[in-house]
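A favour, since you know our C-alpha coordinates better than I do. What I am after is a single protein written out in full by you. Could you add the entry underneath, on a fresh line?


***
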Amino acid sequence: MGNSSIRTIAKLSGVSPSTVSFVLNDRPGVRIGELTRRRVLTAATTLGYQQSLLARAIKRPLCHIGVAIGIPDVREHSYSNELFAGVVACAADKGYVVALQPLPTEAPLGAPTGSSPKLIRRMQELHQSKLIDGFVIDKASFTNTSVVQLHELGVPLVTVNGAEVPLGAGGHVPFVTVDHQAAGHMATEHLIQLQHRRIGLVTTPYRQIRDDYRPYGVGQIIGSYRDTLAAAGLEYDADLIADGHPLNLEFTGEAVRSLMAQRVRPTAIIFTDDAMAVMGMNVLRSLGFRIPDDVSVVGFGDWANVIPLSDPLLTTVRAPVRESGHRACELLIGRLEEMPSQSPDSILPCEFIVRQSTAATSSPSC
Protein backbone atom coordinates (compact mmCIF):
# COMPACT_ATOMS: atom_id res chain seq x y z
CA MET A 1 0.00 0.00 0.00
CA GLY A 2 1.44 3.34 -1.03
CA ASN A 3 2.00 6.39 1.16
CA SER A 4 -0.89 8.22 -0.50
CA SER A 5 -3.29 5.43 0.44
CA ILE A 6 -2.07 5.42 4.04
CA ARG A 7 -2.49 9.20 4.24
CA THR A 8 -6.05 8.89 2.93
CA ILE A 9 -6.96 6.32 5.60
CA ALA A 10 -5.26 8.45 8.26
CA LYS A 11 -7.30 11.50 7.27
CA LEU A 12 -10.59 9.57 7.28
CA SER A 13 -9.93 7.88 10.63
CA GLY A 14 -8.41 10.95 12.32
CA VAL A 15 -5.06 9.36 13.20
CA SER A 16 -1.47 9.71 12.03
CA PRO A 17 -0.14 7.86 8.95
CA SER A 18 2.29 5.97 11.18
CA THR A 19 -0.63 4.68 13.30
CA VAL A 20 -2.37 3.45 10.14
CA SER A 21 0.81 1.63 9.11
CA PHE A 22 1.17 0.02 12.56
CA VAL A 23 -2.45 -1.21 12.53
CA LEU A 24 -2.59 -2.54 8.98
CA ASN A 25 0.78 -4.25 9.20
CA ASP A 26 0.18 -5.54 12.73
CA ARG A 27 3.56 -4.18 13.82
CA PRO A 28 4.81 -6.26 16.79
CA GLY A 29 5.57 -4.49 20.04
CA VAL A 30 3.40 -1.48 19.20
CA ARG A 31 0.33 -0.93 21.41
CA ILE A 32 -2.67 0.59 19.67
CA GLY A 33 -5.92 1.29 21.52
CA GLU A 34 -8.86 -0.91 20.52
CA LEU A 35 -11.09 2.00 19.47
CA THR A 36 -8.28 3.52 17.38
CA ARG A 37 -7.61 0.16 15.73
CA ARG A 38 -11.31 -0.17 14.82
CA ARG A 39 -11.44 3.35 13.37
CA VAL A 40 -8.51 2.58 11.10
CA LEU A 41 -9.97 -0.74 9.96
CA THR A 42 -13.36 0.83 9.34
CA ALA A 43 -11.79 3.63 7.30
CA ALA A 44 -9.74 1.15 5.29
CA THR A 45 -12.79 -0.98 4.61
CA THR A 46 -14.80 2.09 3.61
CA LEU A 47 -12.12 3.07 1.14
CA GLY A 48 -12.13 -0.39 -0.38
CA TYR A 49 -8.59 -1.54 0.27
CA GLN A 50 -7.44 -5.14 0.00
CA GLN A 51 -9.32 -7.51 2.25
CA SER A 52 -6.28 -9.77 2.54
CA LEU A 53 -4.35 -6.94 4.13
CA LEU A 54 -7.19 -6.14 6.49
CA ALA A 55 -7.55 -9.77 7.47
CA ARG A 56 -4.04 -9.81 8.88
CA ALA A 57 -4.97 -6.98 11.23
CA ILE A 58 -8.24 -8.47 12.45
CA LYS A 59 -7.44 -10.63 15.46
CA ARG A 60 -10.96 -11.66 16.35
CA PRO A 61 -14.48 -11.65 14.91
CA LEU A 62 -16.66 -8.57 14.96
CA CYS A 63 -17.78 -7.61 18.47
CA HIS A 64 -21.49 -8.09 19.11
CA ILE A 65 -23.80 -6.59 21.71
CA GLY A 66 -27.03 -8.42 22.40
CA VAL A 67 -30.20 -6.52 23.28
CA ALA A 68 -32.78 -8.56 25.19
CA ILE A 69 -36.24 -6.98 25.03
CA GLY A 70 -39.56 -8.66 25.82
CA ILE A 71 -41.18 -7.59 22.53
CA PRO A 72 -40.81 -10.00 19.57
CA ASP A 73 -40.71 -7.14 17.03
CA VAL A 74 -39.34 -3.89 18.47
CA ARG A 75 -41.03 -1.95 15.67
CA GLU A 76 -44.41 -2.73 17.25
CA HIS A 77 -43.62 -0.98 20.50
CA SER A 78 -42.32 2.59 20.74
CA TYR A 79 -40.40 2.11 23.98
CA SER A 80 -38.52 -0.93 22.70
CA ASN A 81 -37.91 0.69 19.33
CA GLU A 82 -36.39 3.78 20.96
CA LEU A 83 -34.26 1.71 23.32
CA PHE A 84 -32.96 -0.47 20.51
CA ALA A 85 -32.20 2.57 18.33
CA GLY A 86 -30.14 4.12 21.13
CA VAL A 87 -28.05 0.98 21.52
CA VAL A 88 -27.53 0.68 17.76
CA ALA A 89 -26.39 4.30 17.44
CA CYS A 90 -23.82 3.91 20.21
CA ALA A 91 -22.60 0.53 18.99
CA ALA A 92 -22.10 1.74 15.42
CA ASP A 93 -20.00 4.63 16.69
CA LYS A 94 -17.82 2.26 18.71
CA GLY A 95 -17.38 -0.38 16.02
CA TYR A 96 -19.79 -2.97 17.44
CA VAL A 97 -22.62 -4.89 15.82
CA VAL A 98 -25.99 -5.22 17.60
CA ALA A 99 -28.01 -8.43 17.70
CA LEU A 100 -31.58 -8.57 19.00
CA GLN A 101 -32.10 -11.48 21.41
CA PRO A 102 -35.74 -12.58 21.20
CA LEU A 103 -37.31 -13.57 24.51
CA PRO A 104 -39.82 -16.41 24.96
CA THR A 105 -43.34 -15.41 23.99
CA GLU A 106 -44.80 -17.42 26.86
CA ALA A 107 -43.88 -17.55 30.54
CA PRO A 108 -45.57 -18.58 33.80
CA LEU A 109 -48.60 -16.43 34.58
CA GLY A 110 -47.47 -12.91 35.40
CA ALA A 111 -43.76 -13.76 35.13
CA PRO A 112 -41.31 -11.68 33.08
CA THR A 113 -40.32 -13.54 29.92
CA GLY A 114 -36.65 -13.28 30.88
CA SER A 115 -37.17 -15.56 33.89
CA SER A 116 -36.95 -18.65 31.67
CA PRO A 117 -34.03 -20.96 32.67
CA LYS A 118 -33.76 -21.94 28.99
CA LEU A 119 -33.18 -18.31 28.04
CA ILE A 120 -30.52 -17.86 30.73
CA ARG A 121 -28.65 -20.90 29.39
CA ARG A 122 -28.97 -19.60 25.83
CA MET A 123 -27.53 -16.21 26.75
CA GLN A 124 -24.66 -17.89 28.60
CA GLU A 125 -23.93 -20.08 25.56
CA LEU A 126 -23.97 -17.08 23.23
CA HIS A 127 -21.42 -15.34 25.41
CA GLN A 128 -19.17 -18.36 25.95
CA SER A 129 -19.11 -19.10 22.22
CA LYS A 130 -18.01 -15.48 21.57
CA LEU A 131 -21.08 -14.85 19.43
CA ILE A 132 -22.26 -12.15 21.86
CA ASP A 133 -19.76 -10.17 23.94
CA GLY A 134 -22.31 -8.72 26.36
CA PHE A 135 -25.96 -7.78 26.76
CA VAL A 136 -28.11 -4.71 27.33
CA ILE A 137 -31.27 -6.13 28.90
CA ASP A 138 -34.67 -4.58 29.49
CA LYS A 139 -35.05 -5.13 33.23
CA ALA A 140 -38.85 -5.18 32.91
CA SER A 141 -38.43 -8.56 31.21
CA PHE A 142 -36.12 -10.08 33.83
CA THR A 143 -36.37 -10.88 37.53
CA ASN A 144 -33.59 -9.87 39.91
CA THR A 145 -32.78 -13.56 40.31
CA SER A 146 -32.27 -14.08 36.57
CA VAL A 147 -30.05 -10.98 36.33
CA VAL A 148 -27.90 -12.22 39.22
CA GLN A 149 -27.69 -15.66 37.57
CA LEU A 150 -26.40 -14.11 34.35
CA HIS A 151 -23.84 -12.10 36.30
CA GLU A 152 -22.63 -15.15 38.21
CA LEU A 153 -22.32 -17.05 34.93
CA GLY A 154 -19.88 -14.39 33.77
CA VAL A 155 -22.15 -12.72 31.20
CA PRO A 156 -21.34 -8.97 30.97
CA LEU A 157 -24.54 -6.95 31.10
CA VAL A 158 -26.15 -3.60 31.83
CA THR A 159 -29.84 -3.26 32.69
CA VAL A 160 -32.25 -0.58 31.52
CA ASN A 161 -35.76 0.32 32.67
CA GLY A 162 -35.42 -0.87 36.26
CA ALA A 163 -33.80 -0.39 39.64
CA GLU A 164 -30.33 -1.58 40.55
CA VAL A 165 -29.93 -5.32 41.07
CA PRO A 166 -27.86 -5.92 44.23
CA LEU A 167 -24.92 -8.32 44.24
CA GLY A 168 -22.75 -9.65 47.03
CA ALA A 169 -20.30 -7.41 48.92
CA GLY A 170 -22.49 -4.34 48.42
CA GLY A 171 -22.15 -4.21 44.64
CA HIS A 172 -24.81 -4.13 41.96
CA VAL A 173 -25.27 -4.67 38.24
CA PRO A 174 -24.75 -1.41 36.28
CA PHE A 175 -28.07 0.13 35.26
CA VAL A 176 -29.63 3.01 33.36
CA THR A 177 -33.23 4.14 33.73
CA VAL A 178 -35.44 7.15 33.20
CA ASP A 179 -36.77 9.02 36.23
CA HIS A 180 -40.21 7.41 36.47
CA GLN A 181 -40.82 8.93 39.90
CA ALA A 182 -40.43 12.45 38.54
CA ALA A 183 -42.60 11.52 35.55
CA GLY A 184 -45.47 10.43 37.80
CA HIS A 185 -45.16 13.60 39.86
CA MET A 186 -45.10 15.95 36.85
CA ALA A 187 -48.15 14.38 35.24
CA THR A 188 -50.19 14.34 38.45
CA GLU A 189 -49.13 17.82 39.57
CA HIS A 190 -50.03 19.29 36.17
CA LEU A 191 -53.58 17.96 36.43
CA ILE A 192 -53.97 19.07 40.06
CA GLN A 193 -52.96 22.58 39.02
CA LEU A 194 -55.78 22.42 36.46
CA GLN A 195 -58.18 21.75 39.39
CA HIS A 196 -58.70 18.06 38.66
CA ARG A 197 -59.55 16.10 41.79
CA ARG A 198 -60.51 12.68 40.37
CA ILE A 199 -57.50 11.56 38.33
CA GLY A 200 -57.44 8.10 36.77
CA LEU A 201 -54.26 6.17 36.02
CA VAL A 202 -54.04 3.50 33.30
CA THR A 203 -50.75 1.61 33.50
CA THR A 204 -49.05 -1.03 31.44
CA PRO A 205 -49.80 -4.46 33.02
CA TYR A 206 -49.18 -4.20 36.77
CA ARG A 207 -52.03 -4.87 39.20
CA GLN A 208 -52.77 -8.39 37.95
CA ILE A 209 -49.08 -9.34 38.06
CA ARG A 210 -47.57 -11.05 41.10
CA ASP A 211 -45.96 -8.53 43.46
CA ASP A 212 -42.36 -9.67 43.00
CA TYR A 213 -42.69 -9.56 39.19
CA ARG A 214 -44.22 -6.10 38.91
CA PRO A 215 -42.29 -3.69 36.65
CA TYR A 216 -40.22 -1.15 38.57
CA GLY A 217 -41.02 1.88 36.41
CA VAL A 218 -44.78 1.47 36.70
CA GLY A 219 -44.46 1.02 40.46
CA GLN A 220 -42.47 4.26 40.66
CA ILE A 221 -45.14 6.15 38.72
CA ILE A 222 -47.95 4.78 40.91
CA GLY A 223 -46.05 5.65 44.09
CA SER A 224 -45.33 9.17 42.88
CA TYR A 225 -48.96 9.62 41.75
CA ARG A 226 -50.12 8.61 45.23
CA ASP A 227 -47.61 10.87 47.01
CA THR A 228 -48.48 13.86 44.84
CA LEU A 229 -52.19 13.44 45.53
CA ALA A 230 -51.48 13.24 49.28
CA ALA A 231 -49.32 16.38 49.18
CA ALA A 232 -52.27 18.22 47.63
CA GLY A 233 -54.66 16.91 50.29
CA LEU A 234 -56.44 14.59 47.86
CA GLU A 235 -57.57 11.09 48.75
CA TYR A 236 -55.96 8.14 46.99
CA ASP A 237 -58.53 5.78 45.47
CA ALA A 238 -57.18 2.42 44.25
CA ASP A 239 -60.27 2.04 42.04
CA LEU A 240 -58.93 4.86 39.88
CA ILE A 241 -56.01 2.68 38.75
CA ALA A 242 -56.49 0.15 35.93
CA ASP A 243 -54.24 -1.97 33.72
CA GLY A 244 -54.02 -1.41 29.99
CA HIS A 245 -51.59 -2.56 27.31
CA PRO A 246 -49.85 -0.53 24.58
CA LEU A 247 -50.36 -3.30 22.01
CA ASN A 248 -53.92 -4.31 22.96
CA LEU A 249 -56.80 -1.96 22.18
CA GLU A 250 -59.42 -4.24 23.73
CA PHE A 251 -57.55 -4.49 27.03
CA THR A 252 -56.86 -0.75 27.21
CA GLY A 253 -60.40 0.08 26.17
CA GLU A 254 -61.82 -2.03 28.98
CA ALA A 255 -59.63 -0.15 31.47
CA VAL A 256 -60.96 3.21 30.24
CA ARG A 257 -64.57 2.05 30.22
CA SER A 258 -64.28 0.75 33.79
CA LEU A 259 -62.95 4.11 34.99
CA MET A 260 -65.64 6.12 33.22
CA ALA A 261 -68.41 3.82 34.50
CA GLN A 262 -67.71 4.78 38.12
CA ARG A 263 -70.38 6.69 40.04
CA VAL A 264 -67.99 9.64 40.36
CA ARG A 265 -65.97 9.42 37.19
CA PRO A 266 -62.47 10.86 36.74
CA THR A 267 -62.08 14.19 34.97
CA ALA A 268 -58.55 13.33 33.86
CA ILE A 269 -56.61 10.15 33.03
CA ILE A 270 -52.87 9.55 32.99
CA PHE A 271 -51.59 6.74 30.74
CA THR A 272 -48.12 5.26 31.24
CA ASP A 273 -47.59 4.91 27.48
CA ASP A 274 -48.49 7.27 24.64
CA ALA A 275 -49.91 4.43 22.54
CA MET A 276 -52.34 3.57 25.35
CA ALA A 277 -53.23 7.25 25.63
CA VAL A 278 -54.18 7.44 21.95
CA MET A 279 -56.24 4.26 22.31
CA GLY A 280 -57.86 5.73 25.40
CA MET A 281 -58.73 8.98 23.62
CA ASN A 282 -60.48 7.02 20.87
CA VAL A 283 -62.47 5.04 23.45
CA LEU A 284 -63.41 8.21 25.35
CA ARG A 285 -64.73 9.77 22.15
CA SER A 286 -66.73 6.63 21.37
CA LEU A 287 -68.34 7.00 24.82
CA GLY A 288 -69.32 10.58 24.01
CA PHE A 289 -66.65 12.42 26.03
CA ARG A 290 -64.82 15.43 24.63
CA ILE A 291 -61.07 15.90 25.11
CA PRO A 292 -60.07 17.97 26.97
CA ASP A 293 -63.46 19.59 27.71
CA ASP A 294 -64.84 16.57 29.57
CA VAL A 295 -61.70 14.53 30.21
CA SER A 296 -58.05 15.60 30.15
CA VAL A 297 -55.48 13.04 28.97
CA VAL A 298 -51.74 12.76 29.70
CA GLY A 299 -49.36 10.22 28.14
CA PHE A 300 -45.83 9.02 28.69
CA GLY A 301 -42.98 8.74 26.22
CA ASP A 302 -43.44 11.51 23.61
CA TRP A 303 -43.06 8.84 20.93
CA ALA A 304 -42.48 10.45 17.54
CA ASN A 305 -44.51 7.79 15.73
CA VAL A 306 -47.49 8.11 18.09
CA ILE A 307 -47.95 11.81 18.91
CA PRO A 308 -49.08 12.76 15.34
CA LEU A 309 -51.89 10.19 15.72
CA SER A 310 -53.36 11.92 18.77
CA ASP A 311 -56.32 14.25 18.38
CA PRO A 312 -56.02 16.68 20.03
CA LEU A 313 -52.23 16.58 20.29
CA LEU A 314 -51.21 14.75 23.42
CA THR A 315 -49.80 16.34 26.56
CA THR A 316 -47.12 13.91 27.71
CA VAL A 317 -43.95 13.20 29.67
CA ARG A 318 -40.96 13.06 27.34
CA ALA A 319 -38.90 10.03 28.39
CA PRO A 320 -35.25 9.87 27.23
CA VAL A 321 -35.45 6.18 26.31
CA ARG A 322 -33.19 6.42 23.27
CA GLU A 323 -30.60 8.15 25.44
CA SER A 324 -30.91 5.38 28.03
CA GLY A 325 -30.13 2.78 25.36
CA HIS A 326 -27.14 4.80 24.20
CA ARG A 327 -25.87 5.25 27.74
CA ALA A 328 -26.32 1.56 28.59
CA CYS A 329 -24.35 0.61 25.49
CA GLU A 330 -21.55 2.99 26.53
CA LEU A 331 -21.40 1.42 29.98
CA LEU A 332 -21.31 -2.08 28.54
CA ILE A 333 -18.56 -1.29 26.03
CA GLY A 334 -16.58 0.41 28.80
CA ARG A 335 -16.77 -2.80 30.78
CA LEU A 336 -15.88 -5.00 27.80
CA GLU A 337 -12.86 -2.85 27.01
CA GLU A 338 -11.88 -2.50 30.66
CA MET A 339 -12.48 1.23 30.71
CA PRO A 340 -15.04 1.59 33.53
CA SER A 341 -17.03 4.80 33.76
CA GLN A 342 -16.54 7.14 36.68
CA SER A 343 -20.35 7.32 36.96
CA PRO A 344 -21.50 3.79 36.09
CA ASP A 345 -25.21 4.32 36.77
CA SER A 346 -27.62 6.84 35.29
CA ILE A 347 -31.13 8.03 36.14
CA LEU A 348 -32.05 10.23 33.19
CA PRO A 349 -34.41 13.19 33.67
CA CYS A 350 -37.80 13.45 31.97
CA GLU A 351 -39.46 16.57 30.57
CA PHE A 352 -43.14 17.52 30.69
CA ILE A 353 -44.63 18.60 27.35
CA VAL A 354 -47.94 20.49 27.46
CA ARG A 355 -50.07 20.27 24.32
CA GLN A 356 -53.84 20.33 23.69
CA SER A 357 -55.18 17.24 25.48
CA THR A 358 -55.33 18.83 28.95
CA ALA A 359 -57.35 21.75 30.27
CA ALA A 360 -58.84 23.06 33.51
CA THR A 361 -61.80 20.99 34.61
CA SER A 362 -65.28 22.45 34.68
CA SER A 363 -66.17 20.33 37.73
CA PRO A 364 -63.31 20.58 40.27
CA SER A 365 -65.51 19.33 43.09
CA CYS A 366 -65.86 15.84 41.55
Notes: The domain at 64-178+321-348 is CATH 3.40.50.2300 (Rossmann fold). The radius of gyration is 24 Å.
